[in-house]
Design brief:
single chain; 256 residues; mainly alpha; 10 helices; globular
Length: 256
């Protein structure tokens, strides 16, 4: 029980830090931790991770909003298509073998960490300002379809893709992109979690409660820090946390 508690807390805190700093989905950390260290069923682990994402993303969005780093109006356009395809992804995930989902999550966590360290997401150029509103809306819908499917299917990568889209496609500044990303993820995580539990049954309630509380604590603290930190520091700290967690899981899964 002590070992389980430690894994729940570490995975929750790590997920919360990633959510508050860079708008990453908690499933990028929690689900592979539960699968790798405790042998959780992959589908149940993703459900717990998505449920942990709800309050963590919500408190992060609130914190970014207080600091005027949240664009609700434009975020709603992408939210609609993301929500619809989160359900589709969740349904498809129920048909995928455990090993496929688990292995993908482990390597994705490490990749995200290295990506933040090697090539930080910084302020984009101003070329996106020349795009028409219609084109931006179309891009938001199409990208939302892909992001929603990934959020529902595995959770890992959804937040990162949102960040890429908001900065690289729509031209958002980093903090505004993270704030808008966690706002969207509050609803995608809720939809994905409810769908997972409806399809896969009741989760381990003790694991769910501890992960939710730990993720919430990590998200709140890191979101406060992120709104005061420079973009460079945001990327570096997030990259170190995710790389360390991902490397540990790969060693346990494939070496020991």
């Amino acid at each position: 029980m002590i070992i389980k508690m430690i894994v729940y807390i570490i995975s929750g805190l790590g997920a919360g830090i990633g959510t508050g700093l860079a708008g990453l989905s908690a499933a990028a950390v929690i689900s592979p931790m539960l699968i790798t260290f405790l042998g959780f069923d992959a589908y149940e682990a993703v459900g717990i991770a998505l449920a942990s994402d709800v309050l963590a993303s919500g408190i992060s969005a609130y914190t970014y909003g207080k600091n005027k780093n949240l664009d609700i109006k434009n975020g709603l356009v992408m939210l609609v298509s993301v929500l619809a395809f989160t359900l589709v992804g969740s349904r498809v995930a129920a048909l995928v073998p455990n090993s496929t989902m688990g292995g993908f999550s482990v390597f994705m966590t490490t990749f995200l960490g290295i990506r933040f360290i090697v090539k930080p997401v910084m302020r984009t150029g101003q070329g996106q300002a020349d795009k028409t509103r219609r084109r931006k809306t179309a891009e938001s819908v199409l990208c939302g379809i892909l992001i929603g499917f990934i959020c529902g299917f595995i959770g890992a990568g959804g937040g990162m893709m949102l960040l890429f889209v908001l900065t690289g496609v729509l031209g958002y500044e980093l903090k505004m992109a993270v704030g808008t990303s966690v706002f969207i993820m509050t609803f995608t995580a809720l939809t994905g979690a409810l769908s997972h539990f409806a399809i896969g049954g009741k989760p381990d309630f003790f694991a769910l409660a501890v992960c939710v509380l730990a993720t919430l604590a990590g998200a709140r603290g890191s979101a406060v820090f992120a709104n005061k930190a420079t973009p460079e520091k945001q990327n570096r700290v997030t990259g170190i946390v995710l790389t360390a967690l991902g490397t540990a899981m790969i060693l346990v899964k494939f070496v020991f």
